[in-house]
Amino acid sequence: MTFKHCPDCGNELDKKEIGDEGLVPYCLLCKKPHFSFSYACVLCVIINDNNEVGLIKQDYVSTTYVGVAGYLKQGETVEACAKREVEEETGLQVIETRYYTSYYYEKKDLLMFGVICKVEKGEFNISEEVNDANWFSPEEAIEQVSNDTIKDMIKDYFQIL
Fold first, then answer.
1. Residue 57 in 3-state DSSP?
2. 25 with 100, same domain?
C-alpha cells in the first residue's frame, strides 16, 4: 500500500529524502514518514503423521487445490496465524509449524510467508469458505496444485526427510 495522504491527520503527503531509503511519502504537519507496505499473509502446506499432504479447494480462489492461506492480524505472529488459519479452514489441530520461505505476490501486493504445518491425520471439518479438502501423497499433491511456491514447499519438505 502506498500512502498519498497522512493516515493520522489526512494532510496530502510530500516526498522527502529519508536516509538511504530515498524519497518517501512524508507528512509536513506530523513531521513523519509513511513507508509503503504490502499486507502480510501466510501460505500453509499441511503434512500429517503419515506424510500425506492436506490441500483445500476454494472455488472463489482457484480451480485447483491450494494450500491454506490467510492474512495476519495485528500483533499476530506468522506461526500463530498459520495455526489459526489451518484450524479455522480445515478443523485440524496443528501440532508443529515450520517457517519455509517468504515471497512477494505482486498481483495482490502481498508478502506471503510459507509455513509447513504438521497435524495428526484426521477427518476434515471444513469451513464455509472451503469447498473441498483432501489428503494426497506428496507426488499426487504436486500434481494437484498449480502454484509453484506450494509445489516447491512440498518437494523441499520431503527431500529433507
1. strand
2. no
User: For residue 78, which of 99, 94, 52 has the smallest C-alpha distance?
Assistant: 99
**pLDDT tens readout for residues 147-156:** 888 999 999 9
Burial (0-12, 13-18, 19+ Cβ within 10 Å), 27: buried
Locate all alpha helices (DSSP H) within 75-147, ordered by sequence.
Answer: 78-90, 138-144
The 10 Å Cβ neighbour count of residue 141 is 26
Amino acid, single-letter form, for residue 61:
V
Domain span at 73: 39-160
| 145/57 Cα distance (integer angstroms) | 10
Q: How is residue 76 written as a grid cell?
A: 499476530
Q: Verify that 102 and 43 share a domain, yes or no.
A: yes
pLDDT in tens, 83-142: 999 999 999 999 999 999 999 988 888 999 999 999 999 999 999 999 999 999 999 999
